[in-house]
Design a protein that fits this description.
Order of helices and strands: EHEEEEEEEHEEEEEEEHHE
CATH architecture of one domain: Alpha-Beta Complex
CATH topology of one domain: hypothetical protein yedk fold
Largest sheet: 9 strands, mixed
Number of helices: 4
CATH class of one domain: Alpha Beta
Strand content: 35-45%
Number of strands: 16
């Protein structure tokens, strides 16, 4: 599952490449972690939203609510569940990125392996979004079974969208959108690094 990705383009560059207008207050870092702002294309606008739908848990000791946990990945086989159903039907978005990372190696010594498309500096993966009381507008990345190159690194991967399917993902029917939730069959660039997975944000 994806818990880190990066976007090395500016707001102006992203907006230009996707043909949308940038939100005036759009603010996001180059590396995006769950619970932090990231760039999202929704309603024909480049917007900043928090990565992850808030899930409030209760303390087993006190019964009091704990700090919400960001649920940042939505599995394709769970999109009809209560948590995701309405957002998938009504609020689909594009998540622009240059690469996503997976953790590899022994516990306590995991490093970052980055996956990207060799022929595109910036691409989009499938996302869904909603409003929340906790964080305002937030989004989650749609994940599917890994295939080909990505399966060497992890069992799941983001749903990578081709440019000619962006419109269908954003505004097509539920069935049309579901048909896009398939593993990417093209070539990926895999960069295994010595960067520690756990890094100060």
């Amino acid at each position: 599952m994806c818990n880190l990705y990066k976007n090395q383009k500016s707001s102006a560059e992203i907006a230009s490449l996707f043909g949308v207008s940038p939100e005036m207050r759009a603010n996001f870092a180059e590396e995006v972690y769950p619970g932090y702002p990231g760039a999202v294309i929704a309603d024909n606008q480049l917007r900043s939203m928090v990565w992850g739908f808030p899930l409030t848990l209760k303390s087993k000791k006190t019964g009091q609510p704990l700090k919400p946990k960001p649920v940042n990945n939505a599995r394709t086989d769970k999109l009809d569940s209560y948590m995701w159903r309405n957002s998938f039907a009504e609020r689909r978005c594009l998540i622009p990125l240059t690469a996503w990372a997976e953790a590899q190696g022994p516990k306590g010594g995991m490093t970052r392996t980055w996956l990207s498309l060799p022929d595109r500096e910036l691409f989009a993966v499938a996302g869904i979004w909603r409003e929340s009381d906790e964080w305002g507008d937030c989004y989650s990345m749609v994940m599917t079974d890994a295939n080909g190159d990505a399966a060497q690194v992890h069992s799941r991967m983001p749903v990578i969208l081709e440019p000619d399917s962006y419109g269908t993902w954003k505004s097509g029917s539920v069935d049309e959108a579901k048909a896009l939730c398939v593993p990417y069959s093209g070539t990926l660039t895999i960069n295994q690094t010595s960067e520690s997975w756990a890094r100060k944000r």
